[in-house]
Amino acid sequence: MQSLEVERLFSGLIGAEYDMLKLICPAVVEVSQKVGDTFATWQAGTPLTVFELGCGTGITSLSLLRARDDIKLTSIDNEPTMLEQAKQHLAHWIDTGQLRLIETDALSGLKALPDESVDVVASGYVTHNFLQGYRTQVLQEIFRVLKPGGAFINGDLYALDDTLEHTRLIQEEVKFWFKAFGEIKRYDLLEQWIVHLFSDESSDHIMRLESSLVCMKEIGFSPVNVLYREGINSLLVAEKPKQ
Ligand SMILES: C[S@@+](CC[C@H](N)C(=O)[O-])C[C@H]1O[C@@H](n2cnc3c(N)ncnc32)[C@H](O)[C@@H]1O
Predict the structure, then answer these.
(1) Which of 19, 31, 38, 231 is most solvent-facing, going by the fewest CB within 10 Å?
(2) 243 CA distance to ligand 1 centroid (A)?
(3) Is 118 among the domain residues?
(4) For 177-197, how does the pLDDT look when each residue is reduced to its tens digit (9 = 90+)?
(5) How many domains does the chain have?
(6) pLDDT at 1 over 70
(7) Is residue 199 part of a domain?
(8) Is the CB of 58 under 6 A from ligand 1?
(9) 102, 109 in Cβ contact below 8 A?
(10) Which of 126, 134, 232, 234 is the best mutation target for the ligand 1 pocket, counting ligand atoms within 8 Å of the beta carbon and taking the most?
């Protein structure tokens, strides 16, 4: 049986120099912005309580906070190195009282919330890191904590269902990483990101689109819409039906 232990994949060099991700995956910034753009018009006119999973250094949090003023955001991450950077980047919103940062893992953070207490759960490039069983539990908890009519807005890496085409895409990506990190002679970071990629691509973790949509629908989300898909970079909105 698969372990549900919480992994810490951003504790080393990757976390300390997370900004370098923009070099090898500029889509992170673009899709994180799309999370904010989608949130900007979600239930417009109603102040929203938002719970963000895996805020990292705050890229996705910033897109949410800039999207609208009527937001109360709680952002969690289980990696202190990342949270420390978020604290610095998002100091303004911590001061205004609109943002709370909490060190905890996604599942524990969600389990601590009451039923139907959150308007939106958001995340950017987080859930693909999870072990399959842990991810299913996280999705079940998201459904539980959302108010009816609420939504999970997730910008993330959803693997292609065409496995051959997926492998080809990943091979192209790895070639690009060698070029990008090679040019600045950062083979130490290259090594760490390749190791990380092995984890993301393993059968224990890989998050394919079709099975993810099925899983969300089985949990009760409806509709579940893919608003953006460019390669594996995707934006999904999964709604909890109004009763
Ligand atoms: C790729 S980063 C994305 C960060 C941020 N959302 C962004 O758009 O830049 C993934 C983040 O998720 C966090 N993370 C991974 N697994 C987690 C878990 N089980 N619970 C909470 N945070 C987790 C990592 O520590 C890391 O900060």
Answers:
(1) 19
(2) 32
(3) yes
(4) 999 999 999 999 999 999 999
(5) 1
(6) no
(7) no
(8) no
(9) yes
(10) 126
